[in-house]
């Protein structure tokens, strides 16, 4: 699946790598169990992704319980959005 080439997700919290490739950043996504994704910085320019960031700000403010940017949506919705962004 092409999305897995763009999104690099750790399989578990114990195996989480602190290495993030140049021009990428980590986000935590999910409604109950949060999963970590590493995505390109270029997504920050996209209005659809910016809307997700606004929702994150409304829900979490600047306190993110996972210690990193937390996106308040389902993993499936996030993958759908990032799949769309990877094609544009």
Percentage of β-strand residues: 15-25%
Average pLDDT score: 78
N/C terminus separation: 17 Å
Low-confidence spans: 1-6, 8-15
Structural class: alpha+beta
Strand arrangement, major sheet: 1-3-2-4
Q: How many DSSP E strands?
A: 4
Principal-axes geometry comes out as globular
Helix content: 25-40%
Radius of gyration: 12 Å
- Helix count from the secondary structure assignment: 3
Order of helices and strands: HEEEHEH
- Sheet with the most strands, sense and barrel status: 4 strands, mixed
Report what the structure shows.
By secondary structure, the chain is α+β, with helices and mostly antiparallel strands. It has three helices and four strands, in the order αβββαβα. It has helices at 3-6, 47-60, 75-87; strands at residues 8-9, 24-29, 35-40, 69-71. The longest helix is centred in the middle third of the chain and has 14 residues, at 47-60. The two termini are 17 Å apart. Residues 1-6 and 8-15 have low confidence and may be disordered.
